């Protein structure tokens, strides 16, 4: 396993009575792209600012490349942390050309060779003499990324890097950014509130709620084995059903369902909509309530006899009508959470 390039240990930051970051611990490994994912106001931007050194933490320890940059009695200023920052609005210098923007912050000795390499890496050849206002949003973002990468930082920090781009452009720019970061071999941490962005771009995702990280995992692990119901609902759509676990399986309104991890007693079962298969049957336990057709697939809302709702994601070609009865089967094991206390 590669060493941690960035380490935050029990870091806190308050603004008056607001605990923006509270006991946060997190590691970013050398060469990985980590997404810090959480709802608005959970402290993502504050974490990024603490890492960049724009403000000091109230407590805890931050290390970059094995060196403490913030700890009791230690505070290394931003320009000596070896971090590159890509701001949400890119913050390009409007009166400087693309070349001058990227060259900013490069020492004179290394400048020419490194500048050409970074411009090529970020596919900015041919745009070097343009001014920022003469560029598209995606191109501006590549300039901001090139400027951050130019001094070969230990870690690149990106704040909501796609929020200024329209939806159609986002997926393409995302793949492009991943390609550039991988080619640069850099360690990167980006913050986002968009689960799709986090899952599709990052090697690992850290989910943050109320100032702390509650789970760090690969995108697949996070989606398939969320730590609790809140993470489950934040990283995707989650069906939650009460059940009784008996080791490797559980009993619930769908009958017997296999479990990912053995459990016993009262549990709450989590099944993703695409884990459910439906079969029309007059004796089926569920009734089709609604159907949303998307072409490539469809979302079918079901009602169980106890009144609980369920959602199933199915190929668009399967025809089901509201009012029809269906049998519901789990195609893969459910995750069992402890039953919430009422
Ligand atoms: N300079 C500040 N002064 C006072 N409160 C602040 C300051 N900066 C952030 N906060 C508060 O700290 C909390 C965390 O803010 P932060 O910007 O880190 O969240 P975020 O997860 O990045 O949210 P968003 O996705 O909306 O940008 C919020 O309640 C915010 O209002």
Automatic annotation (TrEMBL):
* PROSITE patterns assigned to the protein according to its UniProt record, in alphabetical order: ABC_TRANSPORTER_1 (PS00211), ABC_TRANSPORTER_2 (PS50893)
Parts forming coiled coils: none
Give the Enzyme Commission number.
7.6.2.9
* Molecular function GO terms recorded: ABC-type quaternary ammonium compound transporting activity; ATP binding; ATP hydrolysis activity
**Mind telling me which InterPro entries this protein's record contains?**
AAA+_ATPase, ABC_SmlMolc_Importer, ABC_transporter-like_ATP-bd, ABC_transporter-like_CS, Mo/tungstate-bd_C_term_dom, P-loop_NTPase, Transp-assoc_OB_typ2
Cross-referenced Gene3D superfamilies: 2.40.50.100, P-loop containing nucleotide triphosphate hydrolases
**SMART domains xrefs:** AAA (SM00382)
Identify the residues that the record assigns to the ABC transporter domain, covering every copy: 6-235
One cellular component term from this protein's GO annotations in UniProt = ATP-binding cassette (ABC) transporter complex
- Enzyme's top EC category: translocase
Q: Which UniProt keywords apply?
A: ATP-binding, Nucleotide-binding, Transport
> Does the record bear tRNA processing in its keywords?
no
Pfam family membership, one: TOBE_2
Residue ranges crossing the lipid bilayer per the database entry: none
Protein name (record): ABC-type quaternary amine transporter
Native species of this protein? Answer: Rubrobacter xylanophilus (strain DSM 9941 / JCM 11954 / NBRC 16129 / PRD-1)
Taxonomic lineage of the native organism:
Bacteria, Bacillati, Actinomycetota, Rubrobacteria, Rubrobacterales
